[in-house]
Amino acid sequence: MLTTPEKSYYSEVESYYNEDAGLGFESRAGGNRSLERIRNDFREITVRYPFADALEIGCGPGFDVHWFANNFPDRKFTAVDISASMVELAKARLDRDHLANARVFKSDERHLVDLFGKESFDLVYVYFGALNTVENLAASAGEIKTLLKPRGVAVVTFVNKWYIRELLVQALKLNFKTAFARLGKVWSGYSVTRHLPSHCYSPSLIKKAFKDFILLEKKGYSIFYPPWYNDHKIRNKPKKADRLWKIDQEIQPTPLWAAGEYLLFVFRA
Q1: Can you give the three-state secondary structure of 160-211, one letter per residue?
Q2: In degrees to the nearest 10, what's the CA dihedral of 172, 177, 181, 186?
Q3: Where does 5-162+198-268 sit in CATH, by number?
Q4: What is the pTM of this model?
Q5: b/e per residue 186-208 (b: at least 16 CB within 10 A)
Q6: What is the pLDDT of residues 206-238, one digit of tens each?
Q7: Which of 13, 24, 45, 231 is the 20 to 30 A CA-CA neighbour of 35?
Q8: Averaged pLDDT for residues 28-54
């Protein structure tokens, strides 16, 4: 049977995360304070919006669906991931604490309407750039809109194409390939030894893909505060970490909000 380019692309993404699940992803993420600080801010923004039935796209080992299900036992949660291995980890995390208000499925964003039906959720959230690994962002935005009930909310995050700090630092070190890697059509991800087929997006490209939504708020992360993969630089320097985090919060009203490592948008259907 012939393999279509689209099928091959998604198979490669799935294989990457299946392998990642067996390489200690949970322990690496669980011990990363910078990652946890950013994750908690994602959550704080998300819970500002009322919802009863939420969908997480790209749940990984289930950190967030577990947190939501545990903290909001009267609400329903559904999570999906392209990786069968990640789905197994997420299910085990939920089963461990008997969280019956959450369920996990193996799927990608192309099949969610068929799986759950139109207008099935009042909240869709996507943390840490799962939408960077979709083949067509505009099509994915359309799927999310179809999944949402009228006036439902999507909280979506992305790896930023214009992460200025990394571009400047790596260029000064003469690491030009790394400095400009995000600006290409395909980005290989964070690992220097493994390739993850993905795409980095600018704020304007994200807004264009979600043009049928109403933009409620936006935020940038790791502008001056180190990105999660540089957690070791501030792990034992809590005062410095707090200071850099505060600077990032203070410059959100300026154009520098869009210069960070991650971008968060809240859209209403």
Answers
A1: ECCCHHHHHHHHHCCCHHHHCHHHCCCECCCCCCCCCCECCECHHHHHHHCC
A2: 170
A3: 3.40.50.150
A4: 0.91
A5: ebebeeeeeebbbbbbbbeebee
A6: 999 999 999 999 999 999 999 988 888 898 899
A7: 13
A8: 91
